[in-house]
Amino acid sequence: MLESVQSSAACPIDVMLVGCESVGKSGLFRHLTGEKRALTSNVKGSTIAALTASCKLNSNMRLTDLPGLQFDMDSISTQLTLDHLEENQTILLVVKATELKEELIQLQKELNLKGKQVAIVATHQDKYQPSNAEQKRVKELLQLPVVWVNARKMDQAEQAKVITCIEHARSWAVTASILRFLPSTPNPVNKLIPVFRLRLVGPMLACLIILSMFALPVFAAYLFVSWLEPITDQYLLTPITVWLEQTPGFLANVLVGDYGVITLGWYSFLWAFPVVLLISVTTTITEEIGIQEHLTNALDPWLRKIGLTGRDLLPVITGFGCNVVAVMQSRSCSSCTRVSCVSMLAFGSACSYQIGATLSIFNAAHAPLLFIPYLFFLFVVGAIHTRIWNRTTTNELTRIAPLPYLQGINWSSFWWKVSSVIKQFLLQAMPIFLLICLIASVLETVGILSIFSWLAMPLLYLFSLPTDVAPGLIFSFIRKDGLLVLNEGQGSLFMDMSISQIFMLVYLASTLSACLVTLFTIGRELSWKNALSIAWKQMLTSVVSAAFLAAGLYFLS
């Protein structure tokens, strides 16, 4: 069979992978093409753009992985898939073996398949394996090539079966009446976890699990870095600092001064990297096993009260890893709620870089426990912010697509995702922060840094903050980990500040604006008008909520 695949006709074949969400299109695409960017994620909306690659076993066949269809809402990702179906390529319908009849009825109803060349792959064979008689019955009714596979684990022989199935695609002539005669799958297994169905306990437990996804990595990182920091100070940083202090003044200031590339850069790396790494591990694990969708489904009734749906929480959770990726993932949201979702994640989703920077500042101020009320206040104000500025009606938006299965971790996918986060941190985030350190050192040396204090003076005066914190506020507009410059002089800046001032400073630096890269992505994805609207509304909410916070802290003190 493999030989027949490799010696297939030279005529190129373009194949569109089409199906509902979470059916396994990306896993199938990855196995057939070897394209690592399509490593599967057991989360709805994880495929947000069309991805094309040549088939490994048949170089004349080009496959395109399209976003999963959502027939209950008008998302950008669904429209992208529908636009591709206007062309005349071969269509590979990907459906779950456990929902084959239901999904084919839905696809036949919603898509214009008549006359198109179609083949069918039924995934999740490990969840339901039909008998030979049932498989024969399905093929006879459809008069189309159908193959059953487990898209998570496919050897070369199974890949060849799929390619042969595609090569024998036939014109779609199936009617709704014929589809009703397809055998139904007994006892579907992909239902909401029972405990999450409880009216009050379910959402509260979902909130607790989501909080643990970020609180546990932060706590583990804090314990590890608290142990490692004195060791690195004694045996690494101090000897280097002593040696470089003998160099010319300007060079010494740039390398080991208050904003030194080595001193501040190493301190920031030490506190940020473990947080970034561990959060990527916890979020990837929850994606792989499929529990994220169950959590957001349980919170759906609560989220509708602020103009969002459970689906919209998935990009917000992704935002705690990276806001930019989250904004792009919001393509899977309804067009009715997408702006609300992006507004929520821009304000309330502290990316892993921001979390690491915040933890390092609270630690430098000898108040690491401030991180808990900080994260809570950030999320609560973010929810209020979303409700006030985005009065979206979500009652008519429903969930039609079934929940993903709870399943084991795909370790190749897991390691690729985590390693991608590490590479992004080392090759993109850290170099930018070191550049910020370099700029701050040079500006301080030539005496220009004081201009920042003048720019931020009204805000600093309003909240009784010292002028020395201005660079942290300004650099946080560029990147959220830019507030790490507040650690200058190993946190000496915080010695004369109260706990309430430190909390206020970090909150303002976190919420006054999304970072420039996030705003640029919002402008590109939504529109520059929406980006500016989200930016000024966020700034207003930040200042007003900070004023209420200051008043509350004043009366409590």
| Total strand segments | 7
Give the termini distance in whole angstroms.
78 Å
Low-confidence stretches: 1-9, 38-45
Largest sheet: 7 strands, mixed
Oligomer: single chain
Quote the average pLDDT: 83
Q: What radius of gyration results from the CA coordinates? A: 27 Å
Sheet-strand content, in percent, reads 5-15%
**Helix share of residues?**
55-70%
SS-derived structural category: alpha/beta
Number of helices: 24
**Structural shape:** elongated
What does this structure look like?
Helix content is 58%, strand content 6%. It is an alpha/beta fold. Strand 2 and strand 3 (61-65) form a beta hairpin. Helix 9 (249-256) packs antiparallel against helix 18 and helix 20 (470-478) packs parallel to helix 22 (499-511). The chain is elongated, with a radius of gyration of 27 Å.
Q: How would you briefly describe this protein structure?
A:
By secondary structure, the chain is of the alpha/beta class. The chain has 24 helices and seven strands.
